[in-house]
């Protein structure tokens, strides 16, 4: 299994990418970036009535090849499909640019903005930045989960215990990159990401003014 890489320094880039975002000293490891759209409005049905909630959030994950910048986005949710509710989607996003083993700020902002616009209701993004020799294993894991969409006996979506956030946490666990402990009562994307950010380098992207902050 890929092993987590020790954090060195974390900082965002000056204007015009004069230097890349510096996240870790090791230059050839891949990036795994769990993300949450904290203001994402999700549908919840109770007593036959459909409600929209914006305080739960929706989760997904970016994986980045640390050598080439090849970037993939995966998510799980109640999307249209056959069988029980709950479908895995692998969706296109712009690749990032790697300079000196780190992602340039302008390319990461472009990817985050495109991702939010297409899959996050044009809302803010919160995340954590993990590194390890993980891209190939993560990509294979996501593709295998996507194949399970054809399994009519797959585990159904549960807003409490089998949702978009547990999907991302399962991936992180499979890579041995240190996902937080899950609540027994419910795994809420917004709250779980806050726990994640307490122990990992965190990423916050503001959609309205296209600003990015990454800090240890």
Topology:
Blueprint: E1 30-37, E2 42-46, E3 49-53, E4 58-64, E5 71-77, E6 87-91, E7 98-99, E8 102-103, H1 105-119, E9 125-128, E10 130-132, H2 135-147, H3 164-174, H4 189-197, E11 202-206, E12 211-215
Antiparallel strand pairs: 1-4, 1-9, 1-10, 2-3, 4-5, 5-6, 7-8, 9-11, 11-12
What would you say this structure looks like, in words?
- This protein has about 220 residues and is of the alpha+beta class.
- It has one domain.
- It has helices spanning about 105-120, 135-145, 165-175, 190-195, and strands at about 30-35, 40-45, 50-55, 60-65, 70-75, 85-90, 100, 100-105, 125-130, 130, 200-205, 210-215.
- Strands 1, 4, 5, 6, 9, 10, 11 and 12 form an eight-stranded antiparallel sheet that branches.
- Strand 4 and strand 5 form a beta hairpin.
- The longest helix has 15 residues, at about 105-120.
- InterPro entries: TseH.
- Pfam families: TseH.
- This is Type VI secretion system effector TseH-like domain-containing protein.
User: Biggest β-sheet, characterized?
Assistant: 8 strands, antiparallel
Separation, N- and C-terminal Cα atoms: 24 Å
Q: Using only CA atoms, what is the Rg? A: 17 Å
- Please trace the helix and strand order, writing H or E for each element: EEEEEEEEHEEHHHEE
**Strand fraction band?**
25-35%
The percent range for helix content is: 10-25%
Mean pLDDT: 87
Low-pLDDT segments: 3-15
Strand tally, please?
12
**What structural class do helix, strand and pairing data support?**
alpha+beta
Total of helices: 4
Number of domains: 1
Tertiary shape: globular
Oligomer: single chain
């Amino acid at each position: 299994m890929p092993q987590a890489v020790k954090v060195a320094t974390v900082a965002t880039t000056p204007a015009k990418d004069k230097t890349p975002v510096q996240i870790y000293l090791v230059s050839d490891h891949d990036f795994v970036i769990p993300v949450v759209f904290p203001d994402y409005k999700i549908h919840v049905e109770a007593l036959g009535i459909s409600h929209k909630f914006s305080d739960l959030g929706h989760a997904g994950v970016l994986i980045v090849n640390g050598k080439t910048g090849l970037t993939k986005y995966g998510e799980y949710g109640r999307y249209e499909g056959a069988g029980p509710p709950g479908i895995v989607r692998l969706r296109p996003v712009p690749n990032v640019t790697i300079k000196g083993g780190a992602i340039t700020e302008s390319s990461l902002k472009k990817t985050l903005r495109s991702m939010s616009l297409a899959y996050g209701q044009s809302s803010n993004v919160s995340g954590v930045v993990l590194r390890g020799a993980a891209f190939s294993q993560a990509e294979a894991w996501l593709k295998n989960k996507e194949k399970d969409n054809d399994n009519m006996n797959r585990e159904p979506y549960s807003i409490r215990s089998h949702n978009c956030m547990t999907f991302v946490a399962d991936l992180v666990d499979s890579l041995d990159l240190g996902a937080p402990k899950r609540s027994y009562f419910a795994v809420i994307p917004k709250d779980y990401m806050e726990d994640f950010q307490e122990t990992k380098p965190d990423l916050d992207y503001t959609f309205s003014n296209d600003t990015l902050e990454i800090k240890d």
